[in-house]
Structure formats: C-alpha cells, structure tokens
Design a protein that fits this description.
CATH topology: tt1808, chain A
Shape: globular
Largest sheet: 6 strands, mixed
Number of domains: 1
Helix content: 10-25%
CATH architecture: Alpha-Beta Complex
CATH class: Alpha Beta
Strand content: 25-35%
CATH superfamily: tt1808, chain A
Distance between the termini: 54 Å
Radius of gyration: 17 Å
Order of helices and strands: HEEHEEEEEEEHHEEEEEH
C-alpha cells in the first residue's frame, strides 16, 4: 500500500537561511515555507498611496510607517510574513530568534490579491489578532472598493467596513485614510 509522502517541517532557522539567499519572498507558517505571489502595478500603487498618506499624517517622532520590506513575526502562532504596510510606534522590538523580524506592530494593512484574499481575510487575520501590540488591522480588497478595518476593543475585535466616498479613521495612530484616494491609485496604475 502506498503512503503519501511525509511533509518536511522546517524550523524557523531553516526558513531564515532560505530567506537570506532567496530571490523571492517567503512566508513561514506551521513549519511550512510558502513562496509569496508577486504583486501587480495596481497592488503596488495602492500600497504606496497608503504608505504616503500615513507618512504625511504620522508624528514621525512617535510612529513610523514601513513598506512590505519589513518582516513581522507573530510569536504566538509562528507566522513570519511581510505585511503590505506596517506602523510601529516607539522603538521596534526584534524577534529573539531573528534580528530582521519585528514583533510589535501597532497597525498592519494587507491588500488582497485574487490568490490571497481568502487567506488574508481568514487564517492570516486570525494570526495577526494574536499580536499583543496590534490595535488595528486593515484588509483592502483588490477587486472592489472595500476597506475592512478591525480594531481591538477590550479582549475582542470590532469590524467596520468603508467604501467609496468614505474616510477610514485609524484611531490607534491618529490618522485617516481616504478610500477614494487608495482606489484611484489602482485605477491609474
């Protein structure tokens, strides 16, 4: 009787070694290493627009906005990933196992793609919710003008959705994002 091939469970150290020499980015979850999809011009334009809008509004003495080059590790669940946009307030805290990964984001923003929308809104969102410092998570839909914002409320999370003509307040960092500005960037890409 044939048996399915056993999966190799990678260690975080093996993932770090691969990531240092890889030409593409990878995400690490539950001992598995997944190649991350390349972005479209629309995706890149949306991320750049959000990053610029946050940068204009943030008190850079207190908080900094980072592009998708920043590596975030969710210590409670083991996820290591590259959010599209991350905000950290105060000094960044590094993962004890990797000086290239931070563990204290205050806000993360993910822009979905056709291949990641379900994961971004499901499993990845649940991983993010376990980060003790995180106060807001935004999921920006790639296909429709929908900006979902989860904010920490006591021991739970509350969801508000925003669309065309609306402004999404990120109270955690004292800024607002104009939904039309984000999607105009995608339309003009």
């Amino acid at each position: 009787m044939d048996r399915p091939a056993a999966r190799h469970a990678y260690t975080f150290t093996e993932y770090l070694d691969l990531e240092e020499v890889a030409r593409v980015r990878h995400e690490f979850l539950d001992g598995e290493i997944y190649a991350m999809a390349g972005g479209t011009p629309e995706h890149a334009a949306m991320a750049a627009t959000i990053t610029a809008a946050l940068g204009r509004q943030l008190d850079l003495q207190m908080c900094r906005v980072y592009s998708s080059d920043l590596r975030v590790r969710v210590r409670a669940t083991g996820l290591a990933t590259y959010p599209d946009v991350t905000v950290i307030c105060g000094p960044s805290e590094r993962d004890p196992e990797s000086a290239t990964h931070v563990v204290n984001p205050k806000v993360v923003i993910e822009i979905t793609s056709p291949g990641t929308a379900e994961y971004d809104r499901g499993e990845k969102l649940e991983h993010y919710k376990t980060i003790r410092t995180l106060e807001a998570i935004a999921i920006v839909d790639h296909a429709s003008e929908r900006f979902d914002l989860w904010t920490r409320s006591g021991d739970g999370w509350q969801l508000r959705s925003f669309g065309s003509g609306e402004t999404a307040p990120l109270h955690a960092i004292g800024v607002e994002l104009q939904i039309d500005e984000i999607y105009m960037a995608a339309r003009n890409a």
